[in-house]
User: Which sequence fits this backbone?
């Protein structure tokens, strides 16, 4: 699967001429789909969680590990994926990781017990390479502000996948059982391996440094305060969404009494906002600037969540009061995350893969913690209040993080 081509000096292909050409950078659609597969693996099966718990004869909390423990595995693997891609190239790492994801997905379908299912579910985390390297490939080819816009467009297309995935997963579950969403993942994984093989040209610049030498360069990145500011901003901003992933399926089924198909549609609301936020980021990031776009995105996220809590406390306790206003989380994340990722990738451009993996590890690792915490806070009599409070707290922290970055940049500029 190696077959890497020399680094091209071209921007991503947008027309048919260089599509399925391994000597050119990948088509933008390919970047969208490889990131979309990783995103779909997080939420396509969420409406099936109660049914999976019943099938395996275990508690919902055990099956919820397929979300929280999976996110933790994704976080750990992102620490490895970035440096590996800097050393061996984007193409080779993406091909192998997507192939292993297909094998792990087959394992989830054949698992006879909850324990074996969770083992194969953790193995599915290798698909995280798609999240890391789709951003890294864009940064290989563009400067900071333009990279923010391009990442926005890539993630806007990617967001269409999690927008429809929970609803589709819920309908498949109702029609064929909980294995149907995982069968869909298997088909998509096999198709993605073929697409990557024929379309993904290498974008990483050749390096003669060994893996150990690359790791010795990492402290240069770790000493950069702006890098950590952007990482904190991305982690806290996305933390609200991951808390939603951990608690919303329980709320939907137990508190609101939603059927799997209906629950899947409600779970798609953040992705709807995310598409709009990504469009705004893609259209205006270059004009407005990375930091200002992040600030307005985090402010929108927090404001929408505060409004949701206020309306629910006031007595408007319809599912739309909770799920509908969670669209603000998607909107704000869609504006903030492409810019935060572009920012952290640009602090030390020669370590872009490492930066992407490290930043992604903290973002997903923090998300895993938020997912677990959300599950622990909710109970039969709590309603959505603990989850709403947790989402507001982590979103407010992202505002503090971007204000720190802005202050740090002003300090550096004044020297």
Assistant:
């Amino acid at each position: 699967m190696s077959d890497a081509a020399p680094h091209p000096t071209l921007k991503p292909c947008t027309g048919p001429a260089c599509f399925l050409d391994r000597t050119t950078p990948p088509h933008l659609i390919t970047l969208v789909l490889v990131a979309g597969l990783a995103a779909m693996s997080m939420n396509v099966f969420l409406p099936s969680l109660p049914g999976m718990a019943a099938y395996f004869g275990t508690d919902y909390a055990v099956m919820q590990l397929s979300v929280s423990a999976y996110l933790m595995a994704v976080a750990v693997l992102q620490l490895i994926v970035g440096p590996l891609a800097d050393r061996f190239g984007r193409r080779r790492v993406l091909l192998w990781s997507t192939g292993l994801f297909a094998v792990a997905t087959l394992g989830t379908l054949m698992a006879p017990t909850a324990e074996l299912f969770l083992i194969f579910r953790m193995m599915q985390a290798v698909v995280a390479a798609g999240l890391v390297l789709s951003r890294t490939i864009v940064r290989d080819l563009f400067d900071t502000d333009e990279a923010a816009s391009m990442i926005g467009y890539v993630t806007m297309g990617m967001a269409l996948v999690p927008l429809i995935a929970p609803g589709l997963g819920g309908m498949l579950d109702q029609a064929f059982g909980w294995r149907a969403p995982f069968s869909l993942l298997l088909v998509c994984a096999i198709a993605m391996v073929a697409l990557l093989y024929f379309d993904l040209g290498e974008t990483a610049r050749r390096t003669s440094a060994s893996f150990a030498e690359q790791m010795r360069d990492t402290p240069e990145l770790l000493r950069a305060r702006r890098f950590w500011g952007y990482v904190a901003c991305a982690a806290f901003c996305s933390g609200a969404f991951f808390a939603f992933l951990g608690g919303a399926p329980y709320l939907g089924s137990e508190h609101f009494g939603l059927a799997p198909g209906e629950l899947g549609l409600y779970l798609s609301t953040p992705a709807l906002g995310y598409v709009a936020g990504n469009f705004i980021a893609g259209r205006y990031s270059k004009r407005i600037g990375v930091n200002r776009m992040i600030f307005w995105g985090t402010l929108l996220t927090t404001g929408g969540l505060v409004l949701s809590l206020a309306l629910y406390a006031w007595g408007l306790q319809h599912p739309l009061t909770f799920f509908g206003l969670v669209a603000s989380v998607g909107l704000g994340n869609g504006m903030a995350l492409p810019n935060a990722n572009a920012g952290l990738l640009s602090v030390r451009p020669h370590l872009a893969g490492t930066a992407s993996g490290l930043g992604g590890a903290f973002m997903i690792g923090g998300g895993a913690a938020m997912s677990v915490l959300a599950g622990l806070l909710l109970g039969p009599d709590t309603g959505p209040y603990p989850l709403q409070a947790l989402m507001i707290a982590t979103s407010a922290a992202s505002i503090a993080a971007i204000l720190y970055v802005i202050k740090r940049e002003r300090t550096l500029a004044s020297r």
Observations:
- Residues 21-413 form a domain with the Growth Hormone; Chain: A; fold (CATH 1.20.1250.20).
- Residues 227 and 347 are 6 Å apart (CA to CA).
- Residues 1-10 have pLDDT under 50 and may be disordered.
